[in-house]
């Protein structure tokens, strides 16, 4: 072998070695068990499976509490990743169900909007943000209401009696009424709860019906049973995408922001694949697809250039940075708060009956 | 003798074990849960307490909703009975046996379809832009659509529709078992159709009626799907309170509510049993 041949062979060997190493990193193989809401992350999984050769077994749940219960029931060492949000990651951490995330292992983390890169007060990252948006909003059909709606005061003015729909979720009703009554979001005193109960009691006779989820809201608006409805931004966009002639209102009294994302389950059987999935879910490509498929705003700012101008306007991503700095995020206020909210909401519903 | 006892044990052990595992154990677990509570982190605290029952007793919401559910279940039972009795009588007395089988099947087969789909179909029928209003408006019988959806009446209509086969089958079987010679004897002795129905047919088919009423009333009282889909705010029943508690993962409170419902149904059965001697009626004995 002459010098030239030796150099060529070395270069080939080096290339092969590097490629092989790269391939080994990409193709993780095996499988991971993931807990998520239904139809929320499914669109992103085929690309992940193809890239890493890892099969994703997805298990659905209806609420964060159900997810935490499933992890406890199955035992640690069963699930790898769980999607949680609005403070439930803190509860799951306190319960020893999830581990802190080493964000240095996520190549896309540095591209997230600044507020999503901040660790918790504990200095740890318990979750990486997959999506975020606003809740406590109003959807309405202007053709039916005959004019614009800007606030809760407008909704419950008496003009739309029997044409209003409410979401049947005690927590949501608590913070919607909280803003309506002029309070700040957060823990409430007994007097404040009494005011919220009164606010709901005054509103309920004007309500036509309640619904469990935003698909149902879209059906009720489409059938003309209701003209005005409680919504979040994603629920509104999905209804609008079905061709409903509805408008979205950020109530003057206030609204709240939500966030959610994947967490690393403690003792995950396949942690490397779990980290790869976390990184995949916050990649610009997946985040852009999230906006296109489900109408939720991306948490990774590099996804923005991948969206067309119309979708950027719909999702409000051009103002995302400014909005993120002024909006208040929902958090977990504990089981006692939820029990009280449920009590107040059940009583308000019973009054109508 | 010992051999007979062995055979009896072999026959009894499988059903008794099944009952123990699938019925006694879950209800006992639920009863135990009802004396526990959850902490602020949604974890169950395993200390015996009466907190959940005190909460139910202190708030009129729970007992009021229980009474309301009993009322709805009673209306459903009466509605299903009012439809099943003449229908069964007509099928047995006036329809040829070969056609009768098809008609009974036609009434039962829709029950094989998911209750969600069947209830949702009512949504499309009685909704403001639904079939019923379209027909009435097209025929010029009404000027404004009737707002029936999300009312108590809608819930009762839905429940009667869902539970009709539960009432129909035992009544149909009881009427089919009727001895014609007894009715002929009454006729020969001068009893008219109304008298024959009131004094001969009705007492003889009473076991079927009672069985139908019981198996309609009990599930209707714990119902939550139909009230949710057709009743909206007007249709909140005790089953909906239980669902909310369990979906909040407040298992102790959900268990306590379930135990209250179970206790109330058992109390109803005991009271009715005292008056009507249910055991005999259920067995079809005189």
Automatic annotation (TrEMBL), chain A:
Its main location: periplasm. Gene3D superfamilies: Periplasmic binding protein-like II. One of its GO terms (molecular function) is polyamine binding. One of its GO terms (biological process) is polyamine transport. GO terms for cellular component: periplasmic space. It comes from the Bacteria. Keywords: Periplasm, Signal, Transport. It is found in: Periplasm. Pfam families: SBP_bac_8. This is Spermidine/putrescine ABC transporter substrate-binding protein.
